[in-house]
Design a protein that fits this description.
Structural class: little secondary structure
Number of strands: 2
Shape: flat
Largest sheet: 2 strands, antiparallel
Distance between the termini: 30 Å
Helix content: 10-25%
Oligomer: single chain
Order of helices and strands: EEH
Bound molecules: zinc ion
Amino acid sequence: MTAMPLLVWRDSAHFDHRGDRPCVLCGQDTPLRSHQREPVHKVCAEDWTETNPDQIRFVSDAQPRRTDSDVHA
Ligand SMILES: [Zn+2]
């Protein structure tokens, strides 16, 4: 058993305010975008990444540098 790789998509670039588009994986509308601007649900991208562990189609945002102010975030 391996844990589901959870993506970190906190960057606002992952949310397209122009509207929903069909997810490239499940076909349901989503306002979310991958870093390559593919419309895709985060959970769909995570599921795809689990199925294709050697691919880097979907990646997490770069980890922000941690500071003391992150403790309560
Ligand atoms: Zn989807």
